[in-house]
Amino acid sequence: xxxxxxxxxxxxxxxxxxxxxxxxxxxxxxxxxxxxxxxxxxxxxxxxxxxxxxxxxxxxxxxxxxxxxxxxxxxxxxxxxxxxxxxxxxxxxxxxxxxxxxxxxxxxxxxxxxxxxxxxxxxxxxxxxxxxxxxxxxxxxxxxxxxxxxxxxxxxxxxxxxxxxxxxxxxxxxxxxxxxxxxxxxxxxxxxxxxxxxxxxxxxxxxxxxxxxxxxxxxxxxxxxxxxxxxxxxxxxxxxxxxxxxxxxxxxxxxxxxxxxxxxxxxxxxxxxxxxxxxxxxxxxxxxxxxxxxxxxxxxxxxxxxxxxxxxxxxxxxxxxxxxxxxxxxxxxxxxxxxxxx
Length: 342
Description:
By secondary structure, the chain is mainly beta.
C-alpha cells in the first residue's frame, strides 16, 4: 500500500486525466505536478464570521488548450483558476522542456461570492454547465458566462422551524439534475420538462433509535438505469425503471459509540461512493474500506484508524482513499470477504 502525507487535511478527492487531485483544508489544490491556492480565508461582514479556506469540492474543465480550468468552492465562494505551464506555447509544441524543470502558474479568473446563503456542499459539472448546491438551494451556471446563475431549486420554507430536510448532494448529468436529502430521499428531474420534482426515490425506513442520522443520503451514483445510494451504514441498489430497491448491502463498521458521538455533536460524516465499472467502493467509521463486487458480495480492509474513511476515488482502475492528511493507494489483494450474497 502506497501512502502520501500532506500538510493539511484532505477535504475533496477526484481523478482527472489519469491523475489523482486533492483539495485540502488550507485552501490549496494539489496534484503530483503542481499545487496552487484556490481559496483564502475571508471574513463574512454580514454574518460577522470567518469563512474558512477549506476546499469543499472542485472539478476541472478541459479547455482544449495548454491550460486547465479549476472550478472550486469553499463554504460561500466559487472560484475559477486557470493553471498552465510557465513556458511559452512554442516550447510546449516543440517539446523544449523536461518534466523535472516544468513549473506552473495559476491565475484566479473569476471569484463568485455571496451566491449562496448557506454552506456550499457540492459542485457538479456536465457539458458546459454546472450546479452548485447548498443546504437549501441549487443554482445552475454556464461555465462560459458566470455573470449570473439560474435557481433550479429553493426548498427554504417560510419558517425555518417548518424545515423538513436539507440537501446533502446535487448531481448534474446531461439533461437531468438530481439531489439527495437528509430525509433519505433522492429526487431526479428532467430539465427538458421542468426543474421541479418528477421522480422521487425513498430509502426504506427502520425503527432504529438513530434512524434520522442513519438514513441521511451521503452520496449516490446514477449508472444507466441504476441508482446506487449510500447512507450512513448501507448501500442501496435501485432499478430506476421500476423505482425498485433490488438489493442492499449493510455495513458493520459503525459502532454504537461512533453513532452516538455523531448524534450528540451533530457532526455528520460524508461517505463517498466510487466505482471502477465492476466494483463499488465506500468508506466507513474507524478506518474501514468496503468493496462490493458485481455479484453483490461484500469485502473490506481495516486500515487501523480511529478516524472515519470518507473519501474514495478510482483512477484508471487504481483505488485511492484518504484518512485525515493521508492519501493511500490500495492494492485489491488486501480486501477480505465479509459477506457473500446468496
